[in-house]
Design goal:
Structural class of chain B: mainly alpha
Helix content of chain B: 55-70%
Strand content of chain A: 5-15%
Helix content of chain A: 40-55%
Largest sheet of chain A: 6 strands, parallel
CATH superfamily of chain A: MTH777-like
Number of helices of chain A: 10
Number of strands of chain B: 0
Oligomer: heterodimer
Largest interface: A-B, 58 and 49 residues
Strand order of the largest sheet of chain A: 3-2-1-4-5-6
Number of strands of chain A: 6
CATH architecture of chain A: 3-Layer(aba) Sandwich
Order of helices and strands of chain B: HHHHHH
Chain lengths: 278, 232
């Protein structure tokens, strides 16, 4: 079969096919089966093992570029923590992320309040907002959380919030849940906090940074790992939710299969060309 | 289907379509959206950094230290000692030093005194080099080397296979980067085996990158279909 015409194929056809493959399942879901991988189960189980009422640090280090992958993880992790009656202190080390993180957390809290759950800002969760300084902030937090964050995202004095009166430094937290889009993120939390202050840690990250963090999972520095939209969707499945990550997985699977097909075809074309060219 | 009545959603949707139009070919609509994005982002980040970094981290503490009043409520701040009687977490007037170092960075705009900015850069580079080095040593070098020392005979057959594969991959990949001897003979075989493991890791990395980029596309389509067109 002569496939040489593929070499001259206008790339816009590929864009169109990817567009159709993504939009189609979003309009009419096809229900591609979804499993639960070991790192995702570990993430879920690590949070499930936190004692009720414990205080958890949740650092949401991303900006709107990471929204499709990381917001679903943030929502599901926050809900799981709240359902375990954990108290959550939220921080953000990305300049453009604090507004999105606050909107996500507050949206989730309102949904849970509408379900009749008693969740109060300042008592059950606190959003400390953004702080500039990357690793320096992480180290500074080790000398006192209020040192690094004298005010919360809503300009309340940190010391005036009931939850923050129980928080001194990293020793006050049972676990660090890091949702990370890159630098600063999981790598820096592992280097500066997990290894130095021995705070147990789980991570949810963008797919592009997941391969870099798997060694931390293998070494036990991370207790669990969610990689990209697939990780978020598997986590939603484990929690019995059907969020935006689950809804996007049909499109993700089809488009991914198409990219794989293009790679195979590209290699076949090059291989046949090499064989026929003297 | 219920079209959004929100002006912001319409602006975001139309700008998304302008950006998507580049997939057909470069055009003025794409250029407009691109330039708008760059300008708005720069302005947004400057304002955001001023109000979330400069004001709470520099202006407010200095105001409190020298006036003994809260900058927002203007209530009297009860403190012992003067503006420079600081301690860990209560730096008071000592914030003048980082403030001055921050201002020195702007001397780069004036050629005759631009050398002054090197003092600030020296502090920044010194602090971050120190933090990075100790963090890497503790978090990566020691912990990862320790985790690499796996028993080759584990609890079950597949654990052993995994450990043996891991060890072969680790050693041969390291040998690939050993350039002090020509890659011939047994070293050549090991290096070529290392390439196979490296290629597998690059392939996994590429697959994850594709997944990440597709997620961005899916996120935009979800926005267009759900938030803009209301097709939930």
């Amino acid at each position: 079969m002569n496939l040489s015409w593929l070499e001259k194929l206008d790339r816009r056809w590929l864009f169109l096919i990817v567009g159709v493959l993504v939009m189609g399942p979003l309009l009419r879901p096809i229900g591609v089966p979804l499993g639960s991988s070991k790192p995702v189960k570990q993430f879920h189980d690590a949070i499930a093992a936190i004692p009720e009422g414990a205080i958890v640090l949740m650092s949401c280090d991303y900006d709107p570029g990471g929204k499709p992958e990381l917001v679903p993880m943030t929502r599901t992790a926050f809900r799981q923590l709240m359902e375990r009656h954990c108290r959550v202190v939220i921080t953000c080390l990305w300049t453009g992320g604090s507004g999105l993180v606050d909107e996500t957390i507050e949206g989730m809290a309102q949904e849970m309040r509408a379900e009749g759950k008693d969740i109060v800002y300042g008592r059950d969760y606190v959003d400390l907002g953004y702080k500039a300084g990357y690793e320096a902030v992480m180290v500074l937090m080790g000398k006192g959380i209020a040192n690094a964050f004298p005010q919360d995202q809503r300009a309340n004095a940190t010391s005036s919030l009931p939850l923050m009166r129980e928080v001194r430094d990293y020793s006050s937290f049972a676990m660090l849940v890091n949702i990370s889009a890159g630098y600063p993120g999981t790598k820096e939390w592992v280097q500066q906090v997990n290894s130095r202050f021995h705070l147990p840690m789980v991570s949810g990250c963008t797919a592009v940074s997941a391969p870099e963090y798997y060694p931390y999972l293998q070494s036990g520095q991370l207790r669990g790992l969610l990689g990209g939209m697939a990780g978020a969707a598997e986590y939603e499945k484990l929690r019995g939710e059907k969020g935006s990550a689950t809804k996007g997985m049909d499109a993700q699977s089809l488009a991914h299969a198409f990219v794989a097909l293009c790679i195979v075809l590209g290699n076949v074309v090059q291989w046949t060309k090499r064989r026929t060219t003297p | 289907m219920t079209l959004s009545h929100d002006f912001g959603t319409w602006v975001a949707a139309l700008l998304t379509l302008c950006i998507f139009s580049f997939l057909y070919k470069d055009n003025p609509l794409y250029k407009f959206a691109e330039h708008l994005f760059v300008g708005v982002s720069a302005g947004y980040y400057i304002v955001l950094n001023f109000w979330t970094v400069v004001v709470p981290n520099l202006y407010d503490p200095l105001y409190r230290a020298f006036t003994r009043h809260d900058p927002i409520t203007h209530a009297v701040v009860e403190r012992t000692g003067g503006p420079f009687a600081g301690s860990v977490g209560d730096y008071r007037g000592w914030f003048l030093i980082p403030g001055l170092l921050g201002l020195l960075l702007f001397t780069r705009l004036v050629r005759r005194v631009d050398w002054l900015s090197r003092w600030s850069l020296a502090v920044i580079i010194g602090v971050y080099a120190g933090l990075k080095t100790t963090g890497f040593a503790q978090g990566d070098l020691v912990a990862q080397a320790q985790a690499s020392l796996q028993p080759l005979w584990g609890h079950d057959f597949w654990t052993s296979v995994n450990a043996i594969l891991f060890t072969i991959g680790l050693l041969t990949s390291l040998l690939f980067f050993f350039y002090s001897r020509e890659h011939k003979g047994s070293l050549g075989i090991a290096a070529r085996t290392g390439i196979v493991f490296l290629m597998v890791s690059f392939g996994a990395g590429y697959g994850y990158t594709v997944m990440s980029r597709l997620s961005l596309l899916i996120g935009r389509f979800q926005f267009l279909l759900n938030d803009w067109l209301g097709m939930k």
